[in-house]
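Our consortium's second objective concerns turning raw sequence data into structural hypotheses that experimental partners can test. To show how far this objective has progressed, the report includes one record in full. It was chosen at random from the queue rather than selected for favorable results. The single chain below, 74 residues long, was entered without modification.
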Amino acid sequence: MASSFSAEQLIYSSPPNLLEGPCQTISDSVHDLEVKARLVHWKTFGEEVRAVSKTVNWADFPSALLYYASTQVQ
């Protein structure tokens, strides 16, 4: 059985764990990118994301953006 997630639910949920076993994750998400600047800790990232999220009218995005299937193999 699949569960559906709206935009708001996706924003406020944790990403799922990588799959293991017969349906395990096998792709590599590493890309040929070069960082041209010094990476630093963004101390206010969480606060800024929450502030922007509060300005979004989530009712404008009612459609399901993701369907997540059960990881149970039968």
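The partners drew two points from this record. The helical segments are 7-11, 45-55. The CA atoms of residues 2 and 69 lie 4 Å apart. Both points have been shared with the crystallography group to help prioritize constructs.
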